[in-house]
Write a structure and sequence with these properties.
Helices cover 34% and strands 25% of the residues. It is α+β, with helices and mostly antiparallel strands. The chain folds into three domains: 64 residues, no CATH class; 51 residues; 122 residues, Glucose Permease (Domain IIA) (Distorted Sandwich), CATH 2.70.70. Strands 3, 4, 5, 6, 7, 8, 9, 10, 11 and 12 form a ten-stranded antiparallel beta sheet that branches. A two-stranded antiparallel ribbon has the order 1-2. The chain is rod-shaped.
Amino acid sequence: MKEKDKKEKSFFNKLRDKYRLVVMNDDTFEEKLSFRLTRLNVFVLFGTFSIFLVIATTYLIAFTPLREYIPGYADFNTRKVLRELMIKTDSLEVELNRKELYMLNIRNIIEGRDLVEVLPDSIRSKNDFDIEELPRSREDSLLRAEIESQTQYTQWIAEETSMSSKESLMFLFPPIEGIITNYFNPAENHYGIDIVADKNEAIKATLDGTVIFSSWTLETGYTIGIQHANDLVSIYKHNSTLLKNVGSPVKAGEAIAIIGETGFLSTGTHLHFELWLDGKPVNPLEFIAFY
């Protein structure tokens, strides 16, 4: 037992034996650096350094993009991101086609054509393009930034309201005061009402919104259309003069046109006024009191 204790004591004593590590000039034997070390300190130092290297390497492999360069290492996060991007792309394509169909039907309403339920192939094919075929120049980027900074045209898109579609119709402003000569009759393809008034009377916006159509058509003459909140669109036809351009924001009661008799469907000075909610015509007399 004593010999064993002596061996163990001598082993631990050796670990704690002090040594001096000296760095000297080989020519002058001048001492430059010196360190006092023990075997135990050296073991602890190298052991700690080795553990640090193992932890650092594990972290780099597990939590940084460097793991992608290791052969056979599967990057499940990248696959997940790619799958989510594909789903978003499909959703954006569906939403784009829906908006194109919506705008096409708005134009059909204004021009007096039948509504369509499916987007024509001629328009659908325009949405199928390769991004690489549309390089952007510096001037194009500056123009896009300028247009996006002008929020007057997209104001109605970003605007949110807590009212439902039916509730918003309760606050409509009469576009003009006059005598109604022709009433709402979808069975005869008459989707609005005809209001006779004096010449040079101003046509007013029925609700806050943004002008989405302001032009001439052969059948309805000078026509203006306004997009309101909750997918509500108001149409004003047969005007003599248009006072607002596409993209202009308007307030309820603001003058947008002058009454007229333009278009070969017109039979005299009057306003043909239509309301479309969710792509369907509604009777303006159910929501507006005309005097």
